[in-house]
Structures are given as structure tokens and as C-alpha cells.
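Re: [help] complex structure
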Amino acid sequence: MRHKHCVSTKMKINITNYCSIHNNQIKLNGETLLVKEKQVPFNEFIKSTYDLNASPYMKFFKMDDLCKLAFLASEFLLKNKNLAEQYGSSTISLLFANTSSSLDTDINYYNTVKDFPSPSLFVYTLPNIMLGEISIRNKFKGENAFFVFEQFQADFLCNYATQLIAEKKAKAVIIGWVELLNDNQEAFLSLAEESENGTELIAENLERLYISNH
Amino acid sequence: MKTVFAAEGNIITSLGYTAEENFSAMEQGNSGIQKFSNPKFLSFPFHASLVDDRKLSEKFSTLSTNQNYTRLEQLFILSIADVIEKSGVDLSNEKTLLIISTTKGNINLLEEQNYGIFPEKRLLLFEMAKEVACYFGMKNSPLVVSNACISGVLAIITAQRLIRSGQYENVIVSGGDLVSEFTLSGFNSFKALSDEPCKPYDAARKGITLGEGCGTLLLTSNENLLHNNEKKIKVAGGSVSNDANHISGPSRTGEELALAVNNAINEAQCANAIDFISAHGTATTFNDEMEAKAFSVAGLQNVSLNSMKGFFGHTLGAAGIIESVIALETMKKNTMISSLGFENSGVSMPLNIIRQTEKKEINTSLKTASGFGGCNAALVFSV
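Output below.
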């Protein structure tokens, strides 16, 4: 897609935090928090990452893999932050996208259909459930959107987030790319808000951060 | 900021292949919901609103002899083609975008009877959208929205924002979903399927009835694409919220849907009050109750309201667009359709549910939707 005209705003919107999970490695603002060898299975890596995070959360164990991935990245991204308190619940927005929607869980659910269709899997056959899980955890009640792209679209995500903040529909936007299918898992979450700190929210910067953490 | 207008619309459901056919069937009180026995879908008979296979093939063959389109892709192509033909929108314009709204896309390709007929990659939503965009030779890659049952309303809101900010001039928004073994078994596993045609807001409601179809709406900032003899309707406001409560159950208070409704109304800045609400009304116990609370919180309990699910079921990712197109017809024809299946109120807060199709001047309407993941969306159309 082409989005030549950036939404204009006089305010400075910056990416203040970003977190990535890829190839059995979790990084916060570019610094590695945990890395495991390639042969370590995804579930084991996810468990180690969960254990890194001090606060237990029982709902985590019910989640499908896509939600676990998104949830953990959000936990590290938002550690020591209380955005709902800082800005107000209804002003925190989630803008997420990926390539495969919830296809990984769709296939897992469909495998149960012939015997005993699983309601606990069926509920995860929608990609925006990730947004629901993160919203419940953090009491975020603002704008939500989930898009599906062939690949990471920094320009679209950047424009959409900027417009939300510029039009005062949001004070902070979590921009997320969380993809999971077969053996490929990746999460890249960034927090955009008006701030003196961080990197300016423009497509080039978002793209660069995504690629350097990939 | 550009003003965004709602131009041509199309609907394909069991009730017909155009917006007019659907609206006139609804005006006459006809429902497309029937009882089906199809063991490939469910081991017991079920109610649903299905698009007839033979009729669909016939209709599609008048457009193309190419057999390489899935059932859902055929619905998208037919629906979009109708809007393009009637509006004359320029597809080669780089200021024209296609947004596809769907929850499950070609998910029926996973099913045994369909396996291997189409490449596996067509399960990917953007691959499906690309096929549809390619058919029309569109310049821009399509944008895909998949946000549970608010997908259609969110797609229209997204289009409005992209046009308002000047990023595009025309956006064709098209939503589609099928009734499949996947969705039927899933909603059945939740015990959410009604064993009779759904009865939104009624005391005897038993759950949802699934429907399939496609709806398409052209949004534009170009007034030349509007018909001279009809009301000029603006897509005036839109907002989305999250309950932050439960992934498969709605808010207990309705405050979050009310938040989206109030934000959408504020953005619309319309001088007139809301004349009509096209609500979500899935006929599950909890959804309808939550909506009744939300409309009370928003102070809209006296506004005439319907759910269209009794006519063509819950069409998932298509619902927000199909029901918006009907809401626009309601405004153009000044005719509010009765909320089919409703007899006695089964919600704890008062709602002004339309019992009989009636004539009334409608200049401002509200469309709402809510879905799994705790999402809510609201949209205001206004003259």
C-alpha cells in the first residue's frame, strides 16, 4: 500500500519503549534480556521468558501461543509503567497486525472438530483476542484495531497511530506486530506517546527498529 | 479535514444480490433463515442464512468464467463489481483503496470436502484479498481488517479516517464471511447457537443464528460519485473501545460500548439527535443485555432501534457493512425495518425496539457492533 501523505501533527510523538521476541531471544529497547539456543522449543523458551517476569498471571496458562507471545512482549514493554493510571484507561490504544491472523490456532482448533470441538481453543481463533488479553491485564479501554498485511507495514502503522494521537483519540498507542505460524514466531511491540524521550514516531524509525530487532 | 460521504452500497445474502433486493425483502418481513441438515457442517439440523450455491455460480458466471475463485472470493467479487458498476469509481486511481473485512476468510478450505482444490496459501487473509483486488486490477494493495465481529464497522471507520486525513479519496470497503463447519462447530461448542431463528432482545431468545454473505460500501470525498436524487449522507463519526473485562463475554455494565457511542456522536458534531440505531443484537443472553445497559448509559434508550440478525443471521465480518448499508437505505427511504424475532423484552433496561416497519424521517443514524476480545465499535451516519 502507498501512504504518501503523512498525517500532520504539531506535537512530538515518540517511540519511548520497544520490545521484541524473535529466534528464542527477547530484547527490550535493543538490550537482550534472555536468549536460548535455536534447538530449545518455543514452549520452553516462552516458559523461561514467563519466569523472568516477576509477577505471576494465571490467565497466561489458558492462552494460545499467539497470545502468549503478544502478552509476554507487552509485559516487558510496560514493566514499571502504569499507562491506565497515567493517561486514563480510555486513552490507551492498541494497534496490532500480522501476516497469518490466527491461522496456527485455527488449524489446532479444527483438529479437535471431528472429536470434540474445543470452546477454549475456538475463542482464540481471532487475532484480536491478543488485544483483549492485553487490555484485560492493563485495563486498556481505548481504540483497538487488528490488520493483516503480507509483511510489516511501518508507514501504515505509523500514520494510523499518529492520527489517533493527533486527533486526541489516544494518548498512547501500542503498535504491535505479532506473528506465529508453524516454526516462525516473532513479536515486535513499541509504545508511542507524546514525550521528550525516545525516537520520533516516523515510518523510517519504526521500520529501522523492527529490522534491527528481527 | 475532508468530509467523507457514503456512496453506493451492495449486499449479498440469502435475501438477494443487491441492497435494494435485501431491503425490500426485509420491508416485507421475509427472513432468509432456514433449517438445514448438512452432516458435513454439523451432526444435527441447524438454522442458518445461506447463499444458494447454484444461484451464486449462475451469478458469478455472468461476470467471469474463471473457476479459480473460492466461494467467498466469488461473493466479494460480485458484491464489489455491483458497487463499481453503479458508482463509476475509478479503480486505476492511486487515491482508491480496497479494504477487506473478514473474520475467517477462506477457512472452509481447511474442511475435508474442500481440501486440495485451492492452494493452501489462500487460507491467508491477505492472499484472499489480493485475489479479489487483482480481479479488479486495482493499483493499491488491499488493506485487511480482522477484528472479530466489529470488523465491518471498524473497516468503515478506518476508511473514514484514511479519507478524512486526505490519504485516499475513495475507499471501497467490503466485508464477507461464510457459514462453515468451522464457525458452526465453534459457536455450538460455546452453546451459543439457537435451535430456532434468533430472537434479538426477546425474553425467549436462545442464542445466535449464523449467516453468510458479503456487503460493500463505497466511501468517498468526491461528491460527484453521489447520486443527485438521493440524500447526501456523511460518515460523520466513528469510535472503537475495549471492555477490558473478558475475552468471550461482554462488559457487565455496557459502559465501554457507551464510551464508543459517545465518542462517535461527539466526533459527528451533528446538530440533530440520533433518529435510529442499527444495533448489534446477536440474541445471546449476555450481548443483548450489555447493549441495553450501554444505550441507557448513553441516554439513547428512547431511540428507535433494531437488530437485523433475524433476517440474515450473524454474518460475522460482513455484519458491520451489510447492516450499515441497510441503515443507509433506512435513511434514504425514510423507512425503519422491524426488529424481526422480537416480541417481549428480555433485557433489564428499556429499549425502543421497532415492532413494525414504519415510515419516519431519518437524518442521523447510529450503527454499533461488539465482539469477542471485548471490542466495541460505533459509527454515526448523518445528512
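The first strand of chain A starts at residue 13 and ends at 22.
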